[in-house]
UniProtKB/TrEMBL annotation:
Residue positions binding S-adenosyl-L-methionine: 19, 42, 100, 118, 143-144, 164
Chain ranges passing through the membrane: none
Keywords associated with the record: Methyltransferase, RNA-binding, rRNA processing, S-adenosyl-L-methionine, Transferase
Family: Belongs to the RlmJ family.
Residues of the site described as Interaction with substrate rRNA: 4
Reaction(s) catalysed (UniProt annotation): adenosine(2030) in 23S rRNA + S-adenosyl-L-methionine = N(6)-methyladenosine(2030) in 23S rRNA + S-adenosyl-L-homocysteine + H(+)
Protein name as catalogued: Ribosomal RNA large subunit methyltransferase J
C-alpha cells in the first residue's frame, strides 16, 4: 500500500519534533571527527513546497513550523534545525520545508555519508532529483527495512538510523520492532530514532512493549501532544523513541518541549521525556 504522501503534512507539529530530535542527534555525532553514516528508511522527496495545493489544503504547517519560524527567544537547542529550514528559504519567507534527508544533508560533513530509501513510485524520482550527483548520498528504490538489513553493519562505527514509516497499516508497528531486533543484532552501537504518530494509543503501547521485550538497554521516549488522546480519527500527538541516545538528548528535550508546547498548543498541549528502558 503506497497511498501516503507526506506533502499534505510537511512542516506540521510532528515534523517539528522529529526533525529537532534528528538535528540534535546529528549535532552530537559531529562532536567527534570520525565519520558517521545517516540512514533514512522512509525518505520522502527531500523538500516540500508549502505553497503547493496539497500543503495549502491541510495547512498543517501553519500549526507547526510557522509557529516557531523567525520567532524570538528560540532555545539554542533548536538552532541547527532552524538553520536547515533557512537553507531552503530566502530571508523571512517560508516556502520550502526540508524533509529528513535535507535536514541531515544540512549537517553532514565531507567525511560522512547518507543512505536514503524510498519506494513510492512518484516520490522516488523527486528524491533522486533533489540529490542529483551528490556523491555523499546513495539512494535506493527499495523497501526501507530490507535495505537497512542489507546495509548493516556499516563501514563506519557510528551513525543514526531514522525510521519513520507512514503507519498506514497496523502491521507497520510490528515491522518496526522486527527491524530493530534484526538491526541491533548487526549494529548494537548505532543510534536508532523511531518516529511514531499517536492516532490509537494502544498501537504505541504495543510497540513499546515489543521493544522492551528485545532486551535492549537505553531506550528513551520523547513525545509532544497538541490535544488529549481521542477515539476519533486524527493524530493528537507524536514522538520519537531513541535507542542509544546521545547523553545530552534527554536534558535538551526537557528544554525544547516546553517551548514547543507554548508555541504550538499552549492550551491543550502536553509532553513527556522518559526512559522506556534505562541504561
Amino acid at each position: 500500500m503506497l497511498s501516503y504522501r507526506h506533502s499534505f503534512h510537511a512542516g506540521n507539529h510532528a515534523d517539528v519534533v522529529k526533525h529537532i530530535v534528528q538535528s540534535l542527534i546529528l549535532d552530537a555525532l559531529k562532536q567527534k571527527e570520525t565519520p558517521f553514516v545517516y540512514h533514512d528508511t522512509h525518505s520522502g522527496v527531500g523538500r516540500y513546497d508549502l505553497t503547493h495545493e496539497w500543503s495549502e489544503k491541510t495547512g498543517e504547517y501553519k500549526q507547526g513550523i510557522a509557529r516557531i519560524w523567525q520567532q524570538a527567544d528560540i532555545p539554542a537547542e533548536v538552532q541547527s534545525y532552524l538553520d536547515a529550514v533557512a537553507q531552503l528559504n530566502n530571508g523571512d519567507t517560508l516556502r520550502y520545508y526540508p524533509g529528513s534527508p535535507r535536514v541531515a544533508r544540512a549537517q553532514i560533513r565531507e567525511q560522512d555519508r547518507m543512505v536514503l530509501t524510498e519506494l513510492h513510485p512518484s516520490d522516488f524520482p523527486l528524491l533522486e532529483q533533489e540529490f542529483h550527483r551528490d556523491r555523499q548520498v546513495k539512494i535506493f528504490k527499495e523497501d526501507g527495512f530490507s535495505r537497512l538489513k542489507a546495509s548493516l553493519p556499516p563501514k563506519e562505527r557510528r551513525g543514526l538510523v531514522l525510521i519513520d514509516p507512514p503507519y498506514e497499516l497496523a502491521r507497520e508497528y510490528r515491522d518496526v520492532v522486527t527491524a530493530i531486533a534484526q538491526s541491533h543484532k548487526r549494529w548494537a552501537t548505532g543510534i536508532y530514532a523511531i518516529w511514531y504518530p499517536v492516532v490509537n494509543r494502544c498501537d504505541i503501547e504495543d510497540m513499546l512493549e515489543g521493544l522492551q521485550g528485545l532486551g535492549i538497554r537505553k531506550i528513551l521516549q520523547i513525545e509532544l501532544g497538541v490535544s488529549p488522546d481521542t477515539t476519533e480519527r486524527g493524530m493528537t500527538a507524536s514522538g520519537m523513541i531513541v535507542i542509544n541516545p546521545p547523553w545530552k538528548l534527554e536534558s535538551q528535550m526537557q528544554t525544547v518541549l516546553p517551548f514547543l508546547k507554548q508555541a504550538i498548543a499552549p492550551a491543550t498541549g502536553h509532553f513527556k521525556v522518559e526512559w522506556v528502558v534505562p541504561e
